[in-house]
Specification:
It is a single chain. Helix content is 72%, strand content 0%. The model has no long low-confidence stretch (mean pLDDT 84). Helix 2 packs parallel to helix 5 and helix 4 crosses helix 5. With 74 residues, it is mostly helical. It has five helices and no strands. The chain has one domain. Bound molecules: zinc ion. The site of zinc ion has 6 residues, from helix 2 and helix 5. Zinc ion binds next to helix 2 and helix 5.
């Protein structure tokens, strides 16, 4: 494999497991709690951020859950 091919494979290949909306929904609560606590939510739940970037429905859920949980405070 040439150097170029490897680079392209890295750009196109999935960064982690592909998440479905259903799985995203299941993990979103935990993900937001990790985010708000300053933990590495992306490492804990790989693929979720990528899903949010590609799925506006889940991105909206993420935004509202985040707003809700941060309002509730510590
Ligand atoms: Zn989704």
């Amino acid at each position: 494999m040439t150097r170029e091919n490897r680079l392209i494979g890295r750009l196109l290949g999935p960064a982690g497991p592909e998440l479905s909306c259903e799985r995203c929904f299941e993990e979103l609560d935990r993900y937001v709690q990790l985010e708000l606590s300053g933990a590495d939510a992306d490492a804990a739940i790989p693929g979720l951020r990528a899903h949010l970037q590609g799925c506006s429905a889940c991105a909206e859920d993420h935004e509202s859950l985040r707003a809700l949980l941060s309002e509730q405070g510590s």
